[in-house]
Amino acid sequence: MSDTFVVVGGDAAGMSAASKAKRDDPDLEVVVFEKGEWVSYGACGLPYYVKGEIQSLEELVSVTPEEFREERDIDLRTGHEVVSIDPDERTVTAESDAGTVTESYDSLLLATGAEAVVPPIDGTNREGVYTLGSMSDGKELREYVARARDGEGLQQPDRGPACRYLEDCSGPVAVVGGGYIGIEMAEALAANGFEVNLFQRGDRLLKGFSEATSEAVADHLREQDIVLHLGSGVRELAGEEAVDAVVTDGGRVNVEMVLLGTGVRPRTDLAADAGVELGETGAIATDPYRETSVDDIYAAGDCAEAIHAVTGEPAYVPLALTANRHGRAVGQTVAGQPTTGGAIAGTAAIKAFEVEAARTGILDHEEALEAGFDPISETIDAKSRAGYYPGGGTVTITLTADRDTGRLLGASLVSEYGEGAVHRSHALVAALTEGAAVDDLENYDLAYAPPFNTTWDPVLVAAKVLSGNLR
Amino acid sequence: MSDTFVVVGGDAAGMSAASKAKRDDPDLEVVVFEKGEWVSYGACGLPYYVKGEIQSLEELVSVTPEEFREERDIDLRTGHEVVSIDPDERTVTAESDAGTVTESYDSLLLATGAEAVVPPIDGTNREGVYTLGSMSDGKELREYVARARDGEGLQQPDRGPACRYLEDCSGPVAVVGGGYIGIEMAEALAANGFEVNLFQRGDRLLKGFSEATSEAVADHLREQDIVLHLGSGVRELAGEEAVDAVVTDGGRVNVEMVLLGTGVRPRTDLAADAGVELGETGAIATDPYRETSVDDIYAAGDCAEAIHAVTGEPAYVPLALTANRHGRAVGQTVAGQPTTGGAIAGTAAIKAFEVEAARTGILDHEEALEAGFDPISETIDAKSRAGYYPGGGTVTITLTADRDTGRLLGASLVSEYGEGAVHRSHALVAALTEGAAVDDLENYDLAYAPPFNTTWDPVLVAAKVLSGNLR
């Protein structure tokens, strides 16, 4: 009898694992339990769906449930919530409208993902308060925007793409949180004519990026008429049934809607109940092969820790590529070829209106000190194309290195959209993953032609300046 | 008395060396002999000047002679051609309109650059035959284009930016050579209304790139109404005083002008006469610090060899960044801090109309075999942005690796302009410089967001596919 590989959760990590395992070992029985109806969807696309640049939720789905079942021969059971795991008996129990089912496994993958954090303040359950974690969240938000544009919330339904072009703005809304979701949703809402107030507890946006990047993005958001409330911890979402104001230490801002973009946390209840150990980050701890403390139970994606390429320590950075990579690696492993799927570098990218930014590695000096490094940082501005070539803009790059060894620890980049901050970050990911020093980086023979960069690409300029400071 | 550093040649390598040496050691006497009037100019910008996107040659100059003299305190002598070097006496002799001057040196840099190769065929000295190596070449070509647009050569001076929009094309011209200069000049001439015939001896353009890249660029050039004559060795440039036809094995094409873009060769006469050894490539041989076979004589830039990052062997790849990097390194070295300036990877980038391409490392299997590798290549097409995100296109990537070790040897990328082939190449330069294997590369935690790439960036897709083939 063939082995059975059971996957709990049908998004990036789960479906990558299921697909890879079945492809590499067609004799394997692969069962996926997904509590919702959607599988394998690009949650990263939800802000663009709400914005209106993507017309249907179906477009976010890379492979449909039917394709998984019929073409990939995966026993995908949507609408099935796994409620318990028995590691001794090697079974999982799932509930659905049809009742309760118990399935045996030889290998099990926990791919339960993460959920939006709702901050512990009053009023988060009022009408008009949204989060954006799931496809149904996206649907609700799009419906809200459509209603508002049809005149129920906004005064001028036909008033064009962005509030700043209007004489009279109305429909003030709040975004709480200045991370990816918060900023992408600020763009999505502003593009639909809302006056957007963005509240950030800390004193800058995108706190994992460099200060220079945060400032460039903040300046740009202000230019786009986003009202930034930095250093503004939200006390309460006030109102009757529906929210009508955000109350901070500094005062009260009337709004018609609130989007909470205050981060995510790993879904670990099922794992914890089964006796699977969690790490210090609160996510599921694993070995390099994504195996948990319990034999033959793996964890990957937004519910699990991973090893950081710079520190060598476990870290929790829930992002799509890691989920895909590590899910796929588990699939290979259970199909008989043990695979780690590699480390993470905490790399992330964002487009905010007409700027783009990326970050990777360790930028924060406290974090670097804790990891045993002696950090030094440098920020440069450089032209994105040859000075004489038409167009172009500025790329601002912050690099952090270890003073003793010169090793590159982290990088943060920002430029106008299309001027290459994000694609330039790939070289820095490569360099820090390979343990390169900034004086190695300074000598990389990077591609040059006037329509793309200056003879010394901004990446090389940054390395040259920081390397000079280390001598 | 302070030491004297004499530099022969005032472009990228020479002026980088002079500036760095003087900055690091202000007591050093720095003398630069430049036979022409222009120094420190971006020759890479000349096609865009001829095209008309750059309005004056002065825009291509990054630092003026006056700035070098007055702000950087460099004894820059333009209009001075060095005619001999006496290594025993440690002197150089230069000629100018004012006469002959002999200067003593403690260190000497040969930064004599490269010159356009004129192929050994009949007719290259006819009127209407141009090369594009120097600022004066650029000036002559721009004047030719202006004359033609004013009606002397072209029938319809006001007929718009490109021949393909016209009912009746005239002014057929020829570009001989399908490398960077040839293709960039084909764009520059087409944009000015010329019907461009591009002749390439070999059977594909951009022979240092992958076949997939060459084909993508060729297809795009044809779409832009460039008439490609591949596998067409030119026999003769026919005509009376002025050229009026290109004669190939296959026939005769009437043209009004010919641009020779048939490569460059290092200017080494001065070095050879002084007893400086040349390498197998024909360029000046140096040690890792750019010192030649003669003590205290250095060579850098387009006249010199450099060590290839993949093979570890001397190579000749005359490009701007290397000249800058190695010139600067010599400046540091003569100022007392020995610096290699790093290896080269043969990296290059080109924009051709609305496509962009880059290449790095060793792609050619024969070349890889000679260097002791067992090459394997794979080419993939992938989406440049998330499938559901508006816009975007295709990135085609060829990777070559060593079968035994998995080590990345080379890469070639092509995409629509703006879709990131060139900036993505930087990661591959980093990887191959660090000696990474494709299964390392496959696991890089590259930045992802829907406006920039798919969850697995095309670079990762290429690595994944090639890595799969190696197992």
UniProtKB/TrEMBL annotation, chains A, B:
FAD/NAD(P)-binding domain segment(s): 5-311
InterPro entries with a match to the protein in the record: FAD-bd_OxRdtase (IPR050260), FAD/NAD-bd_sf (IPR036188), FAD/NAD-binding_dom (IPR023753), FAD/NAD-linked_Rdtase_dimer_sf (IPR016156), Pyr_nucl-diS_OxRdtase_dimer (IPR004099)
Gene3D superfamilies in the record: FAD/NAD(P)-binding domain
Cofactor: FAD
Domain of life: Archaea
Residue ranges constituting the Pyridine nucleotide-disulphide oxidoreductase dimerisation domain according to the UniProt record: 350-453
Record-level Gene Ontology MF annotations: oxidoreductase activity
Keywords: FAD, Flavoprotein, Oxidoreductase, Redox-active center
Annotated family: Belongs to the class-III pyridine nucleotide-disulfide oxidoreductase family.
Protein name: Pyridine nucleotide-disulfide oxidoreductase
Source organism of the structure: Natronococcus pandeyae
